[in-house]
Write a structure and sequence with these properties.
The complex is a heterodimer of chains A (112) and B (116). Chain A is an all-beta fold and 112 residues long. The model of chain A has no long low-confidence stretch (mean pLDDT 91). Chain B is built from no helices and ten strands. Chain B is globular and about 40 Å long. The chains are: A mainly beta (112), B mainly beta (116). Chains A and B meet through β5, β6, β10 and β11 of A and β4, β5, β8 and β9 of B.
Chain lengths: 112, 116
């Protein structure tokens, strides 16, 4: 079985500040990890994914995430956020023969 | 099609009525998911289809909820005798395969259901 824990339900930050959204997972098999973003009143879109290879993954809009197997984490980071980054962010884990499992989401609010 | 298509985009129904929501997945995608998202909440898994395997219905909240999918095509989510707590956005997603590197899910824009 798989599970995903997003440790923060809400993260408020000021514009141009760095941000880290935390995600921890548990799985008994090899994992594939994803971050999705949901802008207000829209569906979810893929931000980035880790399938294999380099543990540092770069995505759209300047976001990146690092896969840490020993800590079972896949935290999302951005060095300088913009107002337009205000959205809900979802971490998800998939594995061989397992359906995709989502965390409960983190609401990132960027204030001027 | 180019992406996952859901219809209707908005649905207002009276309490006690039945509703049917439709999802057209990306062509060739064998896996299909339904999620519910209440206002200000995260994603609540409802049901998962993978090819011709028996669906995973573990997320359906009550026997008023059911879903069907024929092969790798359209899926319909039916809610019978709707209640006000059913008001939410219902999201559909599809992926190329069930597991492995093709697990990436592509989402539709959702159906906003309002029960009055």
């Amino acid at each position: 079985a798989q599970s995903v824990t997003q440790l923060d339900s809400q993260v408020p930050v000021f514009e141009e500040a760095p941000v880290e959204l935390r995600c921890n997972y548990s799985s008994s098999v090899s994992v594939y990890l994803f971050w999705y973003v949901q802008y207000p009143n829209q569906g979810l879109q893929l931000l980035l994914k880790y399938l294999s290879g380099s543990t540092l993954v770069k995505g759209i809009n300047g976001f990146e995430a690092e896969f840490n197997k020993s800590q079972t984490s896949f935290h999302l980071r951005k060095p300088s956020v913009h107002i337009s980054d205000t959205a809900e962010y979802f971490c998800a884990v998939g594995g061989s023969n397992y359906k995709l499992t989502f965390g409960k989401g983190t609401l990132l609010t960027v204030n001027p | 099609g180019a992406g996952v298509s859901q219809s209707p985009s908005n649905k207002v129904t009276e309490k006690g009525k039945d509703v049917e929501l439709r999802c057209d997945p990306i062509s060739g995608h064998t896996a299909l998911y339904w999620y519910r998202q209440r206002l200000g909440q995260g994603l609540e898994f409802l049901i998962y289809f993978q090819g011709n395997s028996a669906p995973d219905k573990s997320g359906l909240p009550s026997d008023r909820f059911s879903a069907e999918r024929t092969g790798e095509s359209v899926s319909t989510l039916t809610i019978q005798r709707t209640q006000q707590e059913d008001s939410a956005v219902y999201l559909c997603a599809s992926s190329l395969a069930a597991g492995g590197m093709n697990t990436e899910a592509f989402f539709g824009q959702g159906t906003r259901l309002t029960v009055v």
